[in-house]
Amino acid sequence: MAGFLTYLLRSALYLTVFYTFFLLVLRRSSAFRFNRFVLLVGTVVCLLLPLLHVEINGPTLYSELTDRLSASAGLASTETAASTGVPEASGISEISTVNSIETFSWLHILLFLYVIGAITVLVVEAWSYLRMFRLLRRTPYESYNGCRLYLLDRDIPSFSWMHNILMSRSDYENLPAILAHEQAHVRCGHSWDLLFFGGLSILQWFNPLVWICQGELKLLHEYEADNAVLKQGIDGVQYQKLLIRKAIGETQFLQANGFNHAQLKLRIRQMRRPSTPAWQRALLLLVLPLLGGTTLLMADRSCPILIHNGEEFQQWMYQEIRYPKECRNAGLKGRIILDFKVDENGVLQEPKLLGTTHPALEKEILRAMKASPQWISIERDRKKVPIIYTCYLDINPEHYENR
């Protein structure tokens, strides 16, 4: 759960940086196909970058943020006491065997809200597709230049989806530019772009820039189709008048490429805009240091490998723990027992506290345990095996005077 939410956070940050750059630098360029390629490829890169494991020596923005969140969001487990016969330590109510009970934390709440939002967007997308497919299924079609052409005897905004083109019979007979426009959508494969961004909008529904750039992608589709129509020799002025005339009407299928979907002023303005010089595409290189800097900000903190003994782990814990202010004020002292497993890959798992302390200190100790560096794995019969460890920490504010 935490890993998935971490991926969402990182990918959202990468997408925010990239989309902001795109909107500020490339948005009004007349290199429509190039911009479309950049938008799609850049999005894929931003979704893949969080999967790379990058470490730097020392704390990072991401490591500091996650440490503070994990310390305050209730990631720790609550402990229920059962008598063990271990002597009671000064400043701790009792030392006991514990059963780890997972608490309902902020992570669960965030995940619940995320799932509700994703399901809502999925239902809206699915409903729009369902309406479109039902209309296509009820309408007879004929083959036309490798496409399925659906003609209706009533006025309807034209649209295309994959190799399907639907339009009114009147537009087909009297306005060939509309058919040419929809054919351009089909040839360019714009429907695949919309499918991809539809899935992205479900995954990143909480990111407003995803929705903004989905609209930008649809505009790029219209720019590219308009440009293809004008290259066929259709008069630009007459075509613009046609756009204005056909602009009245409602958008019925948001997931399809439609003749009336895009913002009319922007489409007409782009037709009149001169071609963007090729050298301006080199501005795209500016995004590389931006993404590189984001990668450093989101990198994990590198940690040394521990040898397999509790003493080094104790020393690391003393350095890692940030002693809670309320525990310091209470003068909390004593000894707490730690129980955990180190798996065959040297990763600390199943951290538990064998004893009860102040709740804030419990959370902080468990956070530090979960941030443990990698251990050297234990081998038996030339095979790495998991090991269960038990060690203790002396709880004394004097150990953490500067933290």
Summarize the structure in words.
With 403 residues, the protein is α+β, with helices and mostly antiparallel strands. It folds into two domains: 2-54 and 109-296, no CATH class; 304-400, 2-Layer Sandwich (Fusion Protein Consisting Of Minor Coat Protein, Glycine Rich Linker, Tola, And A His Tag, Chain: A, Domain 2). Helices cover 51% and strands 16% of the residues. It is built from 14 helices and 14 strands. The chain has helices spanning 2-26, 32-48, 61-72, 106-138, 169-174, 176-188, 190-203, 208-231, 236-246, 264-272, 287-297, 310-320, 325-330, 359-370, and strands at residues 55-56, 78-82, 97-101, 141-144, 147-152, 159-161, 164-168, 257-258, 300-301, 334-342, 348-354, 378-380, 383-385, 387-395. The strands form five sheets. The protein has a five-stranded mixed sheet with strand order 4-5-7-6-8. A three-stranded antiparallel sheet has the order 11-10-14. A hairpin with a 5-residue loop joins strand 10 (334-342) and strand 11 (348-354). Helix 8 crosses helix 10 (264-272). The chain is elongated. The two termini are 30 Å apart. Residues 70-104 and 250-254 have low confidence and may be disordered.
Task: Draw up the topology in text.
Layout lengths: L1 H25 L5 H17 L6 E2 L4 H12 L5 E5 L14 E5 L4 H33 L2 E4 L2 E6 L6 E3 L2 E5 H6 L1 H13 L1 H14 L4 H24 L4 H11 L10 E2 L5 H9 L14 H11 L2 E2 L8 H11 L4 H6 L3 E9 L5 E7 L4 H12 L7 E3 L2 E3 L1 E9 L8
Helix pairs in contact: 1-2, 1-11, 2-8, 3-14, 4-7, 6-8, 7-8, 8-10
Please tag this protein with its features.
14 strands; alpha+beta; 5-stranded mixed sheet; 51% helix; 403 residues; Fusion Protein Consisting Of Minor Coat Protein, Glycine Rich Linker, Tola, And A His Tag, Chain: A, Domain 2; 2 domains; 14 helices
